[in-house]
What we know:
By secondary structure, this protein is an alpha+beta fold. About 45% of the residues lie in helices and about 15% in strands. The radius of gyration is 18 Å and the shape is globular.
Amino acid sequence: xxxxxxxxxxxxxxxxxxxxxxxxRIQNKNRMLKRVESATSEPNYGQQIAENIGxxxxxxxxxxxxxxxxxxxxHTGFVVEFSIPQxxxxxxxxxxxxxxxxxxxxxxxxxxxxxxxxPLDSQEVNMERQFLxxxxxxxxxxxxxxxDYTRLWYSYFR
Length: 158
């Protein structure tokens, strides 16, 4: 299932968030798309993405002592448990709507090789490489990440 938005969906959502009428969305379409094209062609594109996106890191392993030592202020923190309801999602549009309304975690992929961001690859693939790949030494964390893509796209289309 595809969890990223196509340009049409993004233009509609960003236009709605900016308070644009359908006519204003059409009028501003080229300007919004040019901003995205301009931003993605800059050499520091990856850094710009990282500065305009929100990430919440979660773990499926609440009892691992290393997790407590690394992230819970040397064993003095606390655990908050989240339950993710079954959604019964049957289409990409429903999945995208669900992701905008609720926190939705993606499993981190652990790899011994650093991911390579290639501008010729799809944006979805590069975003997964940038935000969902982590060194294999961290596999004990069983990490999942909630990623605020809406804020990222909003900053580029505006």
